[in-house]
Design goal:
By secondary structure, this protein is of the alpha+beta class. It folds into 3 domains: about 260 residues, no CATH class; about 90 residues, no CATH class; about 55 residues, no CATH class. About 40% of the residues lie in helices and about 20% in strands. The strands form 6 sheets. A 5-stranded antiparallel β-sheet has the order 6-7-8-9-10, covered by helices on one side. A hairpin with a 5-residue loop joins β1 and β2. α7 packs antiparallel against α9. It starts with 7 loop residues before the first helix and ends in a 21-residue tail after the last helix. About 20% of the residues are buried.
Length: about 500
């Protein structure tokens, strides 16, 4: 790709050189990949997933239409046109994100120093907020991106990149290794007093980051042109891997919206239609006019709306009159359709209904597990992808720790445990923990106790309490001389 040791001036000169062998240049390749991505269904699905999460649904473009004189549909602007967004999709995205990463996860290792070294990076509230945002990206767009970098203070930090801004160039068909990546995003700049939106492009490869603007189908380098991933004083360094970590919703990187978009649109449509019916209540009555003293129906409607009355006339055939034909609107039909749509969205997106009847009356453990079975199954697949992503993330962290003299933990075995945010019967869980004592380790029991968030912290407190109790009783019961009755008989006294 782009050469890190190439100067800014050298690259400017290279852009003007004639391409004698007619091969595609690196710059042309980047431009082509950007435009191909923008035209792709994958990009549209990502954008739609993000838009639907933020409440910008297709129903907002709804129009009221009717058949015109020529048999073609025409838009009617004088009818109620409700555009209701009942955002069940956002509810499911938040539900799944909270279920998988809403609770603090646990890192277990035989080397406590390794866990302590990871704690400032992974076991903080700041990172918990960040990983939840990345998880929402993964659900909405099929994939989320995390970028490890060094901040202005030289500390290792992490930044979330929007999925529809990142174009990965994978090295393998399984999408496990990156050759390079392109990031393209809009940025506001000012030319004098004029505001201008420009396309900024960043190319990530094994030599660092390269900066451009995209205009007129070509790239223009932007200062500083190229930058290493790491600066140690005046010395540049780069990672051995491309520092972009993919958090996937599934192996196919398919957004959640693809499972339920038609049902979400149907729900919005039926609720909007119902609201239209309620707002058009006067129109639900068909009026039969006899000897109407007016020019047209528009005038009749206008007089009725303005004055609440109309004039009718009499002629030789009889007196004028206004009769009505009432159209009944069945509310139960709408309620049934709304309930069916909501149920279908939950089932197809593999979520759960917090108002499920199984939670009423006798919410036993089996009922709870049954209610959570779909979201648990989906979370299992998502966790598989996340385990691989965290393995990549921890590699960057351990490299940083090693490079800064914090110890070599590159090959240290560990276990990453996601604490699912599941509703449980606390009394049953506590009883199970009590009954498991002596069968499994205390650490496993503590980890599964519903009141424990920090397993290691709780184990440390238990150890401290045990030591304090020993200090309280001192040597009581120890080194006590045996009772005389317990002495063996003296043969001489027999």
């Amino acid at each position: 790709m782009f050469q890190f040791d190439q100067t800014y001036e050298d690259y400017l000169l290279s852009l003007g050189r004639e391409n004698t062998d007619q091969r595609m240049t690196d710059a042309q390749f980047v431009v082509q990949e950007i435009h191909r991505f923008w035209r792709s269904k994958r990009c549209r699905d990502m954008m739609d997933g993000d838009l639907y999460y933020r409440g910008r649904h297709a129903i907002l473009h709804k129009q009221r239409t009717a058949i015109g004189e020529n048999g073609e549909l025409i838009t009617l602007d004088n009818l109620p046109n409700s555009r209701i967004v009942d955002n069940q999709f956002r509810k499911l995205v938040d539900q799944k994100a909270n279920y998988l990463v809403g609770q603090p996860f646990v890192i277990r290792s035989e080397d406590q120093a390794f866990v302590d070294a990871l704690r400032p990076y992974l076991l903080t509230k700041k990172f918990a907020r960040l990983i939840k945002a990345v998880t929402r990206d993964a659900l909405c767009c099929g994939i989320g991106w995390l970028f490890p970098y060094y901040d202005e203070n030289g500390a290792l930090a992490f930044r979330r990149l929007r999925p529809y801004e990142v174009i990965p160039l994978w090295a393998d068909e399984e999408h496990t290794r990156l050759d390079a990546a392109i990031r393209v995003y809009d940025m506001t700049e000012y030319v004098g007093l004029t505001e201008k939106i420009v396309h900024r492009v960043e190319v990530y490869d094994d030599t660092g980051i390269h900066y451009f603007t995209l205009s007129g189908g070509s790239l223009t380098p932007v200062e500083p042109f190229s930058a290493p991933y790491i600066m140690a004083g005046e010395q540049p360094y780069n990672w051995e891997r491309i520092p972009l970590i993919a958090f996937k919703y599934n192996a196919d990187e398919t957004p959640l919206l693809t499972r339920c978009r038609s049902m979400q649109d149907g729900l919005n449509a039926i609720e909007s239609q119902w609201q239209d019916q309620m707002q058009e209540d006067p129109r639900n009555t068909i009026m039969v006019l006899v000897n109407y003293d007016g020019e047209n129906l528009g005038e009749f409607r206008r007089n009725l709306a303005t004055y609440g009355a109309v004039k009718v006339r009499s002629d030789s055939s009889g007196g004028g009159d206004v009769r009505t034909l009432q159209i009944e609107v069945n509310a139960e039909n709408y309620q049934t359709l709304v309930a069916q749509f909501k149920k279908a969205i939950i089932e197809n997106c593999m979520g759960y209904d917090a108002k499920d009847d199984r939670l009423g009356g006798n919410a036993n453990e089996m009922n709870i597990k049954s209610m959570y079975s779909d979201i648990e199954l989906d979370a299992n697949g998502m966790e598989t992808e996340y385990q691989a992503a965290f393995e990549e993330l921890i590699w960057f962290i351990t490299c940083h720790i090693s490079n800064t003299g914090g110890g070599d933990f590159e090959n240290e075995p560990y276990e990453l445990i996601f604490n699912r945010d599941i509703l449980i019967s606390e009394s049953s869980a506590i009883a199970d923990c009590r009954n498991s004592m002596g069968v499994i380790s205390n650490e496993t029991i503590v980890a599964n106790h519903p009141w424990v968030d920090d397993v290691q912290g709780e184990l440390d407190r238990l150890a401290a309490e045990k030591e304090a109790n020993l200090d309280l009783y001192g040597s009581f019961g120890q080194n006590v001389p045996p009772d005389d009755d317990d002495e063996p008989p003296d043969d001489k006294n027999e």
